[in-house]
Structures
1.
Amino acid sequence: MTEPRLLCLCGSLRKGSLNRKLMTVAAARFDGSFEEGDLRLPLYDGDLQEAQGLPEGVARLAAQISAADALLIACPEYNKAPPGLLKNALDWVSRAEGQVLEGKPVALVSATAGRAGGERTQSILRWMLQPLRAEVLTHPEVLVGPAADAFDASGALVSERFQKAVDALMARLTAAAREKQAR
Ligand SMILES: Cc1cc2nc3c(=O)[nH]c(=O)nc-3n(C[C@H](O)[C@H](O)[C@H](O)COP(=O)(O)O)c2cc1C
């Protein structure tokens, strides 16, 4: 069996993103290969799609999702909800040929300024993924907050508790990806 492939998506574009740091820490614990998808897509526009089909970036992202055995989504919390960047990407890929997210194991992680670590944003993201038929892992929840001091200079998680939760989640994601490969 080939090694499972993980596609990582980060809901923050900024260079110093804490969610990208968390995503990087988590992806390193996946037993397989990984790459990051680019969410810098145009805003969803039905006229654009009708005129020229899926934009190149959307087609690339949909193909990456399709080829992946599992997804890891790092989801910031903006006003208690996921950023528009992620919703836009999900709306676009839902217009691609076939159901690219159907049956795809997905793990969620989040890092926030607030103490709750993104509990509300993750819950809403779960609802957002439901119509796309993704199989979102339910536990353990990786909710890193307050995240400002959660990483050391090398990008590692300072707290053993958070690192253990990441390890357990990524072990489950690897197992789910292998199961999917075997189906
Ligand atoms: C528009 C906006 C809304 C935010 N709303 C929340 C919030 O509801 N809860 C929270 O804990 N942090 C909130 N924050 C702070 C973010 O958690 C913090 O900036 C975090 O570092 C953003 O993720 P990033 O580092 O991956 O870019 C908000 C930040 C922005 C820019």
2.
Amino acid sequence: MGVSALSPPIAAPLGDVNTERLSLRRFERDDLDEPAAVFEHREVWQFPYGRGMTGEETEAFLDAQIAHWDQHGFGCWTAKEIASGRLIGYVGLSVPTFLPDILPAVEVGWRFAPAAWGNGYATEGATAALHEAFTTMGLDWVCSLPQADNPRSGRVAERLGMKLIRDVNVPANARRGEVVAQHYQIARDDRLAAHSSPPRRE
Ligand SMILES: CC(C)(COP(=O)(O)OP(=O)(O)OC[C@H]1O[C@@H](n2cnc3c(N)ncnc32)[C@H](O)[C@@H]1OP(=O)(O)O)[C@@H](O)C(=O)NCCC(=O)NCCS
């Protein structure tokens, strides 16, 4: 794990956790089939790509996730529903390199299969991510950057108690045009004062 100018220093690496309904685990290379079945749905990648991912794109995404964990000591977890054992999406912490102006920073983010929406899973997983960010990792701030035209995602940030700072233009890259994101943030003291019950660490 290297020290990076892209994100603030962390006190300790992020581990796996269980919440009441979710098993949250670091991405592994052998995870390909289940995430590919989730990522092929257009709704999952509507923002920002307007279409689902191919198998090759899912593979490249997994490689990038694994490299992120190796570089920073944290990343996004795969989210499995404990009751069914099914992989239903991902949630966790990442460096928002797509928005260089706000670095160093850590973002909490979420992406779930449409069949899993409307159950509170994104909020449950992101609550665990924030708890770990502010305790294990010792961060002072976490941001979130939902696309402005994705109100479902913005509502997750609001449920987490995050504060909207401003709208920001996210520069275009090779795969999409410029998009507008809502820059949300939450401070450790605000989060820990509001929510005290920890997830179970594995
Ligand atoms: C963004 C996204 C994760 C939001 O999913 P979600 O299921 O709406 O979000 P939450 O986990 O916070 O669930 C809240 C909903 O579950 C309902 N709910 C049901 N049971 C619940 C429970 N036990 N606890 C909490 N909420 C519950 C809430 O009432 C709410 O429903 P509503 O939106 O109809 O009011 C989802 O739309 C998604 O994966 N989209 C595609 C990926 C994406 O766009 N990611 C963000 C990129 S910017």
3.
Amino acid sequence: MSAPLLSVQDLGVRYPVRAGLRRAEITALAPTTLELHRGETLAIVGESGSGKTTLGRAMLRLVEPSQGHILFDGTDLCALRPRALRRLRPRLQMVFQDPYGSLNPRQSIGTILGSVLGHVGVPRAERPARARALMADVGLDADALSRRPAAFSGGQRQRIAIARALAAGPELIVADEPISALDVSVQAQVVNLLQDLKRARGLTLAFISHDLGMVAAIADRIAVMYFGQVVELGTAAQVTHAPAHPYTRMLLASQPVPDVARARATIRAAAAAPLADLPSQIAPPAGCPFRSRCPRALGRCATDPPTLGITPQGALAACHNPEPAQGDTTE
Ligand SMILES: Nc1ncnc2c1ncn2[C@@H]1O[C@H](COP(=O)(O)OP(=O)(O)OP(=O)(O)O)[C@@H](O)[C@H]1O
Ligand code: SF4
Ligand SMILES: [Mg+2]
């Protein structure tokens, strides 16, 4: 595998919150270390509140990390001054969940794309042709450029949001639940568009989703998050066919993964119902945060927080008692 395009080391985010009259802090992202390789799709999955958006935004330094480092193509983003960071920004783009809120309703699509193209130094005379080419790339007619966002459906707006991200000429796109606000009928089209663009342009993609079944069809690797922590990280096959972490197994049981061909054809509505209440983030439990829900908990799970280690399946999991590999009867 090629050198990583992005690597985060011990990246953590804490937020100040109020607990009654007291000031407190929550850990939205526990110190996390992972890499994104050039050209790969890394899916980040987990239930609501598990820290997916925080990780996706922190990776791009769109939220200020409380600790850790972000290396993008060899540059430490945390060490950059605001001006240097702004210069680098076009190479790192984000596509958001809400295609209704993410486009300025007062601007035409041509103006929206033109301002990004201008920002990255495309001469004014070349912008209209580039904007038309971007529309074609995302499967929309060029006459869309004269209209405002209100004229488009949710799926079309998400295509426009993708065109806007592409206009910057990115190498990495973090797509934060880009289909979960869309009708089921257009979800597959938008996912396939992202995958096609990724292949055609050699992009690297971090794809955030609730839906393990859907990401099994598109991801090279999957990071599973629980309570602000990556609890399992492995290839899509390892994570979906031989999960090592009991939480991943529970997620899979609630969202069975069909085979990849079927998953592509039947990408489902994303928002999975939360499985149960999460523990308090203001006063996190000792040991493993998944303990109260875990059928495999051991005595030490109450006291020792697990950290990522190699599993019998060859993936990484933060668990003292991972699920055995298939065919392995020793526990
Ligand atoms: N600006 C903030 N201030 C305080 N707490 C925050 C802030 N942003 C997120 N959080 C908290 O951090 C935790 C992780 O939130 P995050 O939005 O990253 O989760 P998520 O996995 O993306 O959830 P969802 O699936 O609902 O989008 C949650 O408990 C959330 O309430
Ligand atoms: S560390 Fe213990 S409680 Fe946590 S997931 Fe593993 S077995 Fe379950
Ligand atoms: Mg989120």
4.
Amino acid sequence: MTATPLLAPVQLGGLALRNRIVMAPMTRNRAGPGDVPGELSVDYYAARADAGMIITEGTQPSRHGKGYARTPGLYTREQLAGWRRVTDAVHARGGTIVLQMMHCGRIASHHNKDADARTVAPSVLRASGRMFTDTAGLVEFDTPEELSIEGIRATIGEYAQSGRAAQLAGFDGVELHAASGYLPMQFLSTGTNHRMDAYGGALTHRLRFVVEVLEALSEVWGAGQVGLRICPGNPFNDLRDENPVETYEALLRTVAPLNLAYLHVIRSPDATLDAFALAQACFAGPRVLNDGFDFASGNAAVAGGAAAAVSFARAFIANPDLVERFEGGWPLAPFDRKTLYTPGADGYTSYPRHAR
Ligand SMILES: Cc1cc2nc3c(=O)[nH]c(=O)nc-3n(C[C@H](O)[C@H](O)[C@H](O)COP(=O)(O)O)c2cc1C
């Protein structure tokens, strides 16, 4: 390893990273009609290709998985072609890019979705809270339909199908978003999963959906190309779990034989547990740690063995050249909150590189 741990290359399963500075997934709501990533997204990701690995914004594997306005999908020919231009541009600059697969489940509004799309969840429990829509402003979350067993199988099939599309689109791998209160986490957690069948009730049943999705993606990709993102104990999006330590210890021990490329762990200030310690105790493979790191604390996490790599989200928004800025000890530019999720180039591709 070089004197600067974050700048050293690393292998995460089958993914070769030229440094350990990972761009964390960020929803930026810039997809065009048909939820297709367009030219702006090509420029946005290409400008950040110096990262050891880019994890894309959460991308719905089917129309049912969409929750928010203007998020991209990967289940149509047009979406595949759009993503192909993104991955080509990142690869042309020597980068590595994986697709984050995000099925929002009940954290959705029909105002943001196609007319024939459904809002589904493990149980018929509406999340309290509201979300932004382009057509109706702030609205309550949908009341979800309970997925039948056939519906669960179909949903797992959608992940697999979208995983295949990700291969055709030239991605280097995929990451399952099982954090932030979306569908996989809804299955894992006692507050959102009131089922009493093979996918709910007993702890092993609550784990089943996530395990089966990971198995399906591993079949498509090989597990060395599949990552998993978790945030144990995070109450975000009206999520509650009676015993998150037990849930996530069991989950990580259950997925261990798959030999996934990496585990991406977010620590949440709102959680009552130590997510990093839990991950270190229960997941022997490469760990990518997230939330609130800077260059110094990221280097310390790698040097101390807690992390194989560290991911940065907000720092990448206004600093497309984050890796160079870290290397040069240059100041980081602040980002503008108002343009985080608005359409267009402003606040997306408008942030300049540091003057040399
Ligand atoms: C604008 C924005 C959008 C985000 N969208 C996603 C997302 O699509 N998927 C995801 O897993 N996390 C998402 N996150 C969470 C980040 O990946 C990350 O966990 C969080 O910002 C903490 O990392 P940081 O301290 O480096 O910013 C988002 C965060 C921000 C600021």
